[in-house]
Automatic annotation (TrEMBL):
It comes from Cytobacillus oceanisediminis. Residues 118-403 form the Amidohydrolase domain. PANTHER family: BLL3847 PROTEIN, CYTOSINE DEAMINASE. GO terms for molecular function: deaminase activity; hydrolase activity, acting on carbon-nitrogen (but not peptide) bonds, in cyclic amidines; metal ion binding. Signal peptide: none annotated. This is Cytosine/adenosine deaminase-related metal-dependent hydrolase. CDD domains: Bact_CD (cd01293). Keywords: Hydrolase, Metal-binding.
Amino acid sequence: MKGNYWIKNVRLECGYKKENDRVIGTITDLFHILIEGGRIAKVVKDWECFSGNLPVKDAGGLLLLPSFVEKHVHLDKTYMGEKWKACSPASSVIERCEIEKSALASIPTSTHQRSKALLEKLISFGSTHVRTHVDIYPEVKLQNLEGVQQTLEEFSNYASSEIVAFAQHGLLRSGTPQLIKEAVRKGAGIVGAVDPATVDNNIEASLVQLMDLAVEGNADIDLHLHDPGHLGTFTMKRLAILTKEAGWEGRVAISHAFGLGDVSREEAYEMANILKDAGISIVTSLPIGRAIPPVNLLNECGVEVAVGNDNIFDSWWPTGNGDILERAGRLIERYRWTDEKSLSQAMRFITGGKTPLDKEGNQIWPKAGDEASMILIDASCSAEAIARRSERSAVFYKGNLVYGNAGNI
């Protein structure tokens, strides 16, 4: 559905229920929401407030939450839409890249077809904003970019998007920087590289080249950094210095950042303050069996943290279904966030920082004027939704129903 309309009987969170100063539950109630021009125009309690001849749809008591933000995915790499194919063993990132090049060149479906199949999955699970990395390297030039751009344009009324021109095979390779420049000119708003030490074999040259590309193209940065321990944190420190020198605070992200999970808590705290000062955010895919960035510490220090799916059924990783809520479930399990408040507040890591309630239990979403990108979900509250990976009944992007149904919506 499109246009202006009412949704009645929407369940919203109103506050926390406390006992002996401890949060033991979430208070909710039914409200009615007016959608106008892709935004939430009114949130009212009384049915008598309805006026005019606008369509009225019934949510039937389903919980309304902000829609999700998929902060790290590779639409161009996926096999989605292809027959089942497991991964081939690889001993290094470089070998994995070579396997991937051969695999993608041999399958019959196009980048456009495969990226479309995956994007449809992401939207069906509630993601209405997607940051996708797109591999740029001499053998394929901008073919991956063009295929993904076609998909994102077709779905521009279903989800917003960002594209990272990503030097998966090394930024310092002959011809790659020029291709990244061209990708930025053709619409990629972010530049990305991977492991300056172990892939490019030159931390300083790689980081300087990356920052130069960003500044020249007025692009943001998203660096894949798998390098462990002090090698990883040293790279982060150098990137933070370059970020401040360029005035690029708030425009840089580090994906994975495994090194933050390898060092002591004291060192991690020091790094968190460095990242906060440089306005560098962290994106984690929460891999099982690997040290991950200390999300709780980073969040407490004011570093922006997001959860992303990363690889979904491709030559790097065979699993994944595109459900970012399921991926967030790993976060609460890793940190044993089992109480009502911790579960509720964990939603911020997949919504771009939005939660219905703040930490004190004050209602902060939805408000009149908010973009009507939201989901109706079969749960009593945020805590239940994230703990039980509840079913999404309807997904809206800027007021448009882009997936599902709910009653007669």
